[in-house]
Design goal:
Number of strands: 17
CATH superfamily of the largest domain: Naphthalene 1,2-dioxygenase Alpha Subunit, Chain A, domain 1
Order of helices and strands: HEEEEEEEEEEHHEHHHEEEEEEHH
CATH architecture of the largest domain: Alpha-Beta Complex
Helix content: 10-25%
Shape: globular
Strand content: 25-35%
CATH topology of the largest domain: Naphthalene 1,2-dioxygenase Alpha Subunit, Chain A, domain 1
Radius of gyration: 23 Å
């Protein structure tokens, strides 16, 4: 890994043993060189969430997205196959599509080169007069695409392993918390700009040590902190806890008690996504996109059985957005300012042997993944 000018490598006290480890050095959260390394070694080599498959349910449907500087579009082909391509014409590099919609042909707005929905060059005006012109050279360049839990992910690394292979039984686990997941539809979306490094935000998600102090309404009214546990896996970790429903109501999913009707489940998926299921089976997606070393966008999406939330669902959304999430935004921005202080370099992770609700072992897991990715040449 490239060593920053901010400190000698010998002063980095991060340890492979979480119970002995210090945090990552503070410069990891604002150094421009680190941020550029993350672009190529993390975000362009991992599975990135881009949207729900309902957006491309019909042949010809497409939507565009950005993966850390690369414009991509996802499209349902005439053969029903879902594909993803770099959003750039093979002629003179003009962007092909914007937003979302449905089309039978991909036509470049610059010189009208057109492509089939499977990426093959269909027509390039006057190319028949060009010596040695081979249309097969100018197909659109594909990226990996995979549907996981009805969500669409793309990976710019064509040789990377599938998300399913990397996460094992995770899909089955989440489905056990939300058994009618296939019926869910996007009902609410909100975005925030946060003046904080993306890792700072994901680390905030990776522990509930701060919950009793910083989220008293969540820790005292939604979950049972004594039962809160975080379990580590290869590229993900799970948060589970018994819930605290109102005394006069058992949480149900459209009238049916779910297998985990009285539990909260949350799952971090490397590097920048979390999926949560609250009592009753409804689901939200928590997605963090890096913008600059100290600026990130946080997108929250809620999926319900109907795209118009019920009164109870609206109250849940408002509580989690307007209370818990905004509390976290303030925490992360304060931490980001502190990481710049001359009075801070590395902190000590609090990791107990029992991995209780007050343990930061999942933060260590996340930071280990960061270090491993940046060390990979």
């Amino acid at each position: 890994m490239t060593v920053s000018m901010h400190m000698p490598a010998s002063e980095d006290r991060f340890s492979a043993n979480p119970e002995l480890s210090y945090t990552l050095p503070s410069y990891y959260y604002y150094d421009a060189d680190i941020f550029e390394q993350e672009k190529t070694r993390i975000f362009q080599q991992t599975w990135q969430y881009v949207g729900h498959s309902e957006r491309v349910s019909t042949r010809g449907d497409y939507f565009t997205c950005e993966v850390h500087g690369e414009s991509i579009f996802v499209m349902r082909g005439t053969d029903g196959t879902l594909r993803a391509f770099y959003n750039v014409c093979s002629h003179r590099a003009h962007q092909l599509l914007s937003g979302s919609g449905n089309t039978s042909t991909i036509v470049c707005p610059y010189h009208a080169w057109s492509y089939e929905l499977d990426g093959r060059l269909r027509y390039a005006r006057n190319s028949e007069s060009v010596a040695g012109f081979n249309s097969a050279e100018f197909c659109l360049k594909e990226v990996q695409v995979e549907v996981f839990l009805n969500f669409v992910f793309v990976n710019l690394d064509l040789n990377g392993p599938s998300l399913k292979d990397q996460t094992g039984t995770l899909e089955d686990e989440i489905r056990s918390f939300s058994p009618r997941l296939d019926e869910l539809t996007l009902a609410h979306r909100r975005s925030y700009e946060i003046k904080a490094n993306w890792k700072n935000i994901m680390e905030n998600y990776s522990e509930c040590y701060h919950c009793p102090m910083s989220h008293p309404s969540f820790a005292n009214g939604v979950v049972d902190m004594q039962s809160y546990r975080i379990t580590l896996n290869d590229i993900h970790h799970s948060h589970k806890s018994r819930s605290k429903p109102p005394q006069d109501r058992a949480y149900k999913f459209n009238g049916d008690v779910t297998a985990h009707a009285q539990e909260f489940g949350g799952w971090f998926i490397w590097p920048n996504l979390a999926i949560e299921v609250y009592p009753g089976g409804n689901l939200n997606v928590f997605h963090v996109m890096p913008v600059a070393p100290e600026v990130s966008l946080q997108h929250i999406e809620w999926y319900f059985l109907d795209n118009t939330p019920t009164q109870e669902e609206t109250e849940i959304v408002q509580f989690l957005h307007d209370t818990v999430r905004l509390e976290d935004v303030e925490l992360c921005e304060s931490v980001q300012r502190g990481l710049r202080s001359r009075g801070y370099h590395q902190g000590r992770l609090v990791v107990d042997p029992e991995r209780t609700d007050a343990s930061e072992h999942a933060v260590h897991h996340f930071q280990s993944l960061v270090r491993s990715a940046l060390a990979h040449q």
